[in-house]
Amino acid sequence: MSHYFIGIKVQSEIREKLMNWQSILRDAMKYKDWTAKEDLHVTLKFLGSCSDETVERYVQRLKNESWPSEYSLTVGPAGGFGDRQRPRVFHAQVQRAPSLMETKEKVDSVGEELGFQKEKRKFNPHITLAKKQAEGVSPLMEASKESVLFETYEMVVTQFSLFRIHPGSHPKYETVTTIKGGQNI
Prior knowledge:
Layout: E1 2-9, H1 12-28, E2 29-34, E3 41-50, H2 52-63, E4 71-81, E5 89-94, H3 98-113, E6 126-136, E7 153-157, E8 159-165, E9 173-180
């Protein structure tokens, strides 16, 4: 069985800016897993291993919901999870906008009705740039506040998607279906 997640794909102009951040990070640290440009996303819910039938039921339920039509998210500044000098995950922070939180809650609610566990940790929206830190020191430790790593960008969200994970492939995430906002399909 394949593994899946539900997320928001990052727009191309924001992906380019985040690839610049990743370049700065590559000069300072060595990570085992670098996110491909095409794979940059905000995870709403990790589903894990699912049968095709379960995935189809989830998709149909999502398509029967109404979703925010369009909203803006602030992406940035850069951050990390774990040790400040050597974070295990280096990411772009994402604003907890009301429409994002509404979308997240509805995705979780549908999932719970279908038997998926609700995440116990607080939702901390982000875009992973690298993970599984091996060595080096975070460029955030030495960056001035004028650094590109402290910039923020506006991203307009009009849809989210269900992705299938292909470990070892590049890109790793395949869009299975997309749910557009503002309509009840």
